[in-house]
Design brief:
There is one protein chain. Helices cover 60% and strands 13% of the residues. It is α/β, with parallel strands linked by helices. Helix 4 runs antiparallel to helix 6 and helix 16 packs parallel to helix 17. The two termini are 24 Å apart.
């Protein structure tokens, strides 16, 4: 069964060092927390390291001299003081550990907050062509799985790297002071442990990268199937879907098993090597004590530092897996953040306008209901042109991928207030034309003019603010019905929302709902019928009050009875506006000023309803039923 996507070859990490440095820059933004964490880690580790120093004098200066003597208060008092001092150092270490953990939590959450914000901002700035080529689940995986892998590392691994590094250096210095002979032995064993960590870590890194990718595949497929559950059931594809899910889920299992197998091996291997190291050190230390080179206190203290020295190595080896997973996740996150944002070189702006004393247009401070294009020229002058809604296509050619041409030499014009309709088979290029008006995509050749201005000179936000669009596939957000209608104009009052709903004939059914306009919508408005959702979408466009309106199959999901009910409202909505209509129902375009018949990306017929019928061409065949749209 064809899946929603094919499996791309697994790639190795591209730049581990660069990704790690970039991640550290995010961490470095929280300088106060980072410094606090390092200071607390320094105090905590120093306390742990220095506390063991007390073992030597306790044994050599207090306990050993007591052997064979009567235990008295005079002998016990110095010992108790030493033990209390040792306890105070440990207590200081506990307090510092708490401070370190507290700083670590805030540092982690603030860092992730910055990363999520940058990631979301970049996704918001990306062109539609980016989303056309990627499943939503794969993008969502960057926000969920990859960010979670970063959280695991930042909350645990980062503090471990800091504290373990301090303990490692401190323990090494004291061990070298106590016995350079035994220190050489311990260091040699550490090199063996590091070599094994490097070998296993390289394999683990490869599979953790693969695991993250396969997890994105699984999440993307699950999201796609849940959204299309009705289609799956209609065509009885439950078994095929389950089989395909089993395939990609098995790929995830294999990658996860391999990654965690190597990860799980590190801990036991490091622990056993630590025990071997401890036993060898004890044996060699015993020989040195027999020969009078070391005292009993020296040996016991050195063995304690052997643990202090090997424990950070073991901890770092275990955190290495979190680090590898985090780097793999960070690399995917930064890959998305580094995507080229939607470019906008426009400089013509849409502003509120009013007429001056001499009747000339000028910019107004507040909303006036009159809009104008503000055109700043190179010589420093500024001119204003009234927004009327005139749209012209001049020999426009377009392709989505730069290879296959979708539109061929399209030329058309729409005068202010005209209704232009596009008809044709699926894939003829109808929706593409409307997407080009919004500059969702950039044309390959030709020009599109809006009120005589090349739309490439108009800022995209201002261009889209002047356009209202009702899409075939409605999308409603979680929130009230009023919130969803107001999405077309966030400054709209409740009265504006109600008037827009009345215009779209949505007010009637909204008023009958238990909570009216405060009815909560969830799951893309699943608690409403398809027709009701489309009516809300039309009301959302109405509240924006745009001079140009694009209706892309706006009534495709509305039954004939509902369509008749909203026809009057739609006529009011379109009155005085330039309207582009795409419809399969030819009855909805009969009153259009001009009808464009498209086929394979070219306009093959144009004229009004009567003109096209008299030509007895493709439109005539469509209208009389001799040819059906598909």
């Amino acid at each position: 069964m064809p899946g929603p996507r094919s499996h791309a070859p697994i790639q190795k990490p591209k730049n581990t060092k660069g990704t790690a440095l970039r991640l550290l820059k995010y961490v470095g933004r929280q300088k106060a927390l980072l410094i606090g964490m390092i200071v607390f880690a320094l105090v905590s580790s120093a306390a742990t390291v220095s506390a063991s120093i007390f073992i030597k004098p306790i044994i050599d200066d207090y306990l050993t001299p007591m052997i064979g003597k009567e235990f008295t208060a005079e002998l016990a008092l110095p010992l108790i003081k030493m033990i209390l001092t040792m306890g105070a150092v440990f207590l200081l270490g506990v307090i510092a550990s708490y401070g370190q953990s507290k700083c670590s939590v805030y540092l982690t959450q603030k860092t992730l907050n910055s990363i999520r914000k940058d990631l979301f901002d970049r996704v918001s700035d990306l062109p539609l062509s980016f989303f056309d080529s990627r499943p939503n689940g794969e993008i969502m995986s960057r926000f969920t799985n990859d960010v979670e892998s970063l959280r695991m590392f930042l909350s645990q691994g980062l503090t471990q790297f800091v504290s373990s590094g301090i303990m490692l250096i401190g323990s090494f210095v004291i061990m070298l002071y106590l016995s350079w002979h035994l220190t050489i032995l311990v260091v040699l064993m550490m090199f063996v442990m590091l070599f094994i960590t490097k070998v296993l870590g390289k394999r683990s890194a490869f599979f953790f990268k693969r695991q993250q990718k396969e997890l994105g595949e699984v999440n993307g497929y699950i999201e796609e199937i849940i959204e299309g559950q009705k289609v799956v059931k209609v065509f009885n594809h439950e078994e095929e879907v389950a089989a395909h899910f089993g395939e990609i889920n098995e790929n995830l299992r294999r990658a996860s098993t391999s990654a965690n197998t190597f990860a799980s091996m590190l801990g036991p291997i490091m622990n056993n090597l630590s025990h071997i190291n401890y036993a060898l050190t004890a044996a060699c230390g015993g020989l040195l004590a027999v020969n009078g080179i070391m005292s009993l206190g020296d040996i016991i203290t050195f063995l304690q530092y052997t643990k202090n020295f090997s424990q950070p190595i073991s901890n770092l080896s275990q955190q290495f897996n979190n680090a590898v997973s985090a780097i793999a996740g960070a690399e995917r996150i930064f890959e998305l953040i580094d995507q080229q944002p939607e470019t906008d070189n426009g400089y013509v702006m849409l502003v509120n306008a009013e007429h001056g004393e001499n009747g000339e247009l000028k910019e107004a401070a507040g909303h006036t209901g009159l809009w104008a294009w503000k055109h700043a020229h190179g010589d420093g002058t500024v001119t204003y042109r009234k927004l009327e809604g005139k749209v012209e296509f001049e020999h426009v050619t377009f392709s989505y991928d730069g290879k296959k041409t979708v539109l061929h030499d399209i030329s058309l014009y729409a005068k202010p207030g005209q209704k232009i309709a596009f008809v044709g088979s699926t894939g003829a290029g109808k929706t593409t034309i409307t997407n080009l008006i919004n500059r969702f995509y950039e044309i390959d050749d030709g020009k599109i003019r809006y009120d005589g201005i090349n739309i490439q000179k108009i800022k995209k936000d201002d261009l889209r603010r002047s356009l209202g669009m009702v899409l075939q596939d409605t999308h409603l957000f979680t929130g009230t019905i009023e919130d969803n209608i107001r999405y077309g104009n966030l400054d709209a009052t409740h009265e504006d929302v109600v008037n827009a709903a009345k215009l779209a004939n949505a007010h009637s059914f909204i008023s009958k709902l238990p909570d009216g306009y405060n009815t909560m919508l969830t799951g893309d408005g699943s608690n409403l019928s398809q027709g009701q959702r489309q009516l809300i979408s039309i009301a959302r466009a109405a509240v924006a009050d745009p001079p140009v309106l694009i209706l892309d199959e706006a009534t495709s999901s509305i039954d004939t009875r509902t369509e008749k009910l909203i026809e009057q409202g739609m006529d009011k909505l379109m009155a005085g506006r330039t309207v582009f209509v795409i419809a399969h129902r030819l009855s909805t375009v009969r009153n259009a000023n001009a009808i464009m018949v498209l086929e394979h990306g070219s306009i093959i017929e144009r004229g009004d309803h009567d003109d096209l019928l008299s030509q007895k061409g493709k439109y005539y065949q469509l209208y009389t039923g001799q040819f059906e749209l598909s």
